[in-house]
Each structure stands twice: as structure tokens, then as C-alpha cells.
Design a protein that fits this description.
The protein is mainly α and 246 residues long. The protein has helices spanning 21-28, 46-61, 66-83, 87-99, 105-108, 113-120, 129-139, 142-146, 160-171, 179-188, 194-197, 199-205, 218-229, 237-243; strands at 9-12, 33-36.
């Protein structure tokens, strides 16, 4: 009680040991006030309602092994997405299914571009051209992608477009196929997120640092021009201007 002083308010939960007479007397003896939190109710906590429903559905599925339970969970998530009117919920399920190792095919055909992009993030879609096209399309306007949903989705780190960029760059083998995305990212990146969203495409475009003798492809020219126009300077400025014929 040495840290308490008159006028302090001590808030405690409803654990039985917190309600002993000695506890109240000790707190009030220094002029502090004791208050208890309202009685806990699952009805006041939405996540508890979700967990309760999920556990009931898993019991109904009668899955006994770990593998069977994961499969049952994936099926439940997919069934929920199929009837959910909320695009954010469908996007969250798309990301969860991908994290569980599944291919959310139905969600890759969703009406909402953000849901399709989140489905395309599934590692199981690596090498799938449909998924690649969705990622490219989403990254043509990265700022719009970041406004699709409020709050972070499962597995999301920072801006959503950064997750999309990292996935696309990791799967791409050449710049030309993802050029629209690279050009879009050039307009959105800044010094705080450059390493996550734009730098992977610079490395993809220029696996070897260019020299005065480098002959740029049309895709490289377009990308380098976009980088310079948006204040990014991946190489010596004089060299960039020389390569672009300026």
C-alpha cells in the first residue's frame, strides 16, 4: 500500500480473493477508494460469442484429430464467407484460409476487389496467374487498397498494400509482367515503407546495379522514370538521367 495515496481509485476485477474484507480495509485505510469492474458477461464481449459459436460448430463436426479439426475449421470459415454480406469479414476469412494453407478459390472470385486481393495473398496461390493479376490490379492504386477496410486484417503488418507488394514481388520473375503494380507503388511509397513496398520491385527490375553501358528495356525505362518523377533515387541521379537519355 506504500504507493497509494488519498484520492487514488483502485479498480479490481471480481476474483474472489479481491473481495476479502482485509483488502478493502487496507485500501481505504490510506484514503483510497476501491471499485470493482462490472460483473463479466460473455454477452458484452462479441469475441466470446464468436468463440462460443465456433466451438459449438466444431463439436457438431465431431472432428477428433488435429488435422480433422483444422479441416473442419477451414470448412466452417468458407461456409461463413459464402453467406457473409460484409466484405471485411470475407477478406478476413480469405486471409485466415490462406494462413491455414488453403486456397480460397471462391473468394478469389468475390465481387469486392479487396476480398479478391486478400484471397490472392494465400501462399497456396503462388504461381497462379489469376492471383497474380488480382495483386497487380490492386497495386495499380495502392492508396485505394489501403482504404478498402478499416483496421488490420489477420496477418496484416502495416498498410495492406505493403503485404500485397511483398507477395507479388516474391512471386514475380520479371518486371514487365508486374509493371502496372510497380508504377502504382512508385506513386505511393515513402521513406518509411520503401523497404517493404517499392524496394523489392527495384531489385526485381535491376538485379544488377546499372552502369553507363546498361541498355534499359522499355519496362525498366518506364519504371525508372516513375521512380525519379516521384522523388525516389535508387541509383546515382546523373546515371539515371544518362540511361534515360535526358
Amino acid at each position: 500500500m506504500a504507493t497509494l495515496a488519498p484520492g487514488y481509485v483502485v479498480v479490481m476485477d471480481n476474483l474472489g480473493s479481491h473481495k476479502g474484507v482485509a483488502v478493502r480495509k487496507a485500501i481505504e485505510a490510506v484514503g483510497a477508494e476501491l471499485r470493482y469492474l462490472p460483473p463479466y458477461s460473455p454477452d458484452l464481449n462479441p469475441i466470446e460469442q464468436v468463440f462460443a459459436k465456433l466451438k459449438a460448430l466444431l463439436r457438431k463436426a465431431a472432428a477428433r484429430s488435429v488435422g480433422a479439426r483444422w479441416a473442419a475449421l477451414a470448412e466452417l470459415l468458407a461456409d461463413t464467407a459464402a453467406v457473409s454480406p460484409a466484405s471485411r469479414e470475407r477478406a478476413a476469412i480469405a486471409r485466415l484460409l490462406g494462413m491455414l494453407g488453403y486456397r480460397p478459390d471462391a473468394l478469389l472470385r468475390d465481387a469486392h476487389p479487396g476480398v479478391r486481393a486478400c484471397a490472392a495473398l494465400a501462399p497456396a496461390f503462388s504461381g497462379d496467374q489469376r492471383a497474380a493479376r488480382e495483386l497487380v490490379s490492386a497495386l495499380e492504386a495502392p492508396q485505394d487498397a489501403d482504404r478498402w477496410f478499416t483496421g488490420h486484417l489477420p496477418g496484416q503488418e502495416g498498410w495492406l498494400h505493403c503485404d500485397l507488394a511483398e507477395a507479388l514481388a516474391a512471386r514475380a520473375s520479371d518486371l514487365e509482367a508486374v509493371l502496372p503494380a510497380a508504377l502504382g507503388l512508385a506513386t505511393a511509397s515513402n521513406s518509411f515503407i520503401y523497404d517493404r513496398d517499392l524496394a523489392p520491385f527495384v531489385r526485381l527490375a535491376f538485379p544488377q546495379a546499372p552502369t553507363e553501358r546498361t541498355v534499359l528495356t522499355p519496362a525498366q525505362q518506364a519504371f525508372l522514370s516513375a521512380l525519379l518523377a516521384n522523388g525516389h533515387q535508387p541509383f546515382d541521379e546523373a546515371l539515371c538521367l544518362l540511361l534515360l537519355g535526358k
